[in-house]
Design a protein that fits this description.
Layout: H1 25-36, H2 57-90, H3 95-121, H4 132-139, H5 143-148, H6 154-179, H7 183-210, H8 216-232, H9 248-262, H10 270-288, E1 299-300, E2 304-305
Antiparallel strand pairs: 1-2
Helix pairs in contact: 1-3, 1-7, 2-3, 2-9, 3-7, 6-7, 6-8, 6-10
The structure holds fe (ii) ion (2 copies).
Length: 306
């Protein structure tokens, strides 16, 4: 993706003039909302209500792995945030965007901590995937290289990562909040979801404010990034294993999700999520359309054309 391996880190840093006038008031509102809605994973969850001895062994072990896996994802979001902030700074985006993104990183850190605490309660944090094949799926979806690549615009990054991937993830969280019956797991999912709604709003606000100033070619690039990410990341099972190509590893991951879901401890399963996911893609497609971004009909072996 990066031409000649040159990244924005190879460019000289220009710090001044530093324009601190407010240019993105809607994003400032998100920043203020984040400041008002801080929570502490250690004290805002009634951890004593999670009594692992009451959970059947197989479900508890599955949930332990599922929450560890969530933690790997959330921690990944923490680790990629600084690259995006470096990029926003280099592109001289409004100060509200950087301020908001700094607090957004803090929220992802909180999500990671909550997932670690869940895994610990369920029998212990698991540090890494046992199946190599799955590791590539969880380790990265190229955010850092996109963020530092001068040929990929911030709008393309937002369109792909936030308006697509985070939006798909948001509906997943909302579904899990509806279906997760264990009060502690439900509470953690709800706390995470409350932050994620702002993460998604941020991407849309930014993109919608930028599109009127973009050329047709620049908008086309956002479209290409959104399609590529949906097809190559989302539809290959980066977020949930039921979307991944069938393999021994996928079957094992699906089993973990099912056992977690059946115990009301989180996760979801294909038959419950598929219609929600298809509806979500449709909503994203409709929100993109007035911006001149057209998501095509997608195809997936388990979903057909949608
Ligand atoms: Fe998160
Ligand atoms: Fe997020």
């Amino acid at each position: 993706m990066t031409a000649g391996n040159t990244t924005i880190l190879d460019e000289p840093e220009h710090r001044f003039p530093l324009d601190m006038s407010m240019r993105a008031p809607r994003i400032h509102e998100l920043y203020a909302a984040s400041n008002r809605s801080q929570w502490d994973p250690r004290t805002d969850v009634d951890w004593d209500a999670l009594r692992p001895e009451e959970i059947p062994e197989a479900n508890r072990e599955a949930a332990r792995l599922w929450w560890s896996r969530r933690g790997w994802g959330e921690y990944g979001a923490v680790s990629e945030s600084p690259a995006l902030i470096v990029r926003f700074y280099r592109d001289r985006l409004p100060p509200e965007v950087l301020q908001y993104f700094a607090i957004r990183s803090q929220e992802e850190a909180r999500h990671a901590e909550a997932c670690v605490l869940m895994a610990e309660k369920l029998g212990g944090w698991i540090e890494q995937p046992e199946i190599q094949e799955f590791e590539t799926a969880v380790s990265t979806h190229g955010v850092r290289s996109m963020a530092l690549d001068p040929d990929t615009s911030v709008e393309a990054i937002m369109g792909a990562l936030v308006c697509c991937l985070e939006e798909y993830a948001f509906d997943w969280f909302r579904l899990m909040v509806e279906t997760t019956t264990h009060p502690v797991a439900n509470r953690v999912l709800k706390l995470i979801m409350r932050d994620e709604v702002r993460h998604c709003a941020f991407g849309w606000y930014w993109l919608e404010s930028r599109v009127p100033h973009m050329s047709a070619d620049e908008i086309k690039r956002v479209e290409r990034a959104a399609i590529a990410t949906t097809e190559q990341v989302e539809l290959t099972g980066y977020r949930v294993p039921w979307l991944a190509p069938d393999s021994e590893a996928t079957r094992r991951e699906n089993e973990i999700d099912r056992l977690t879901f059946e115990a009301g401890l989180g996760a979801t399963v294909e038959e419950v999520e598929a219609p929600v996911f298809v509806a979500c893609v449709q909503r994203v497609r409709e929100r993109f359309r007035p911006l001149g971004i057209e998501l095509p009909q997608f195809r997936h072996p388990r979903l057909g054309a949608f």
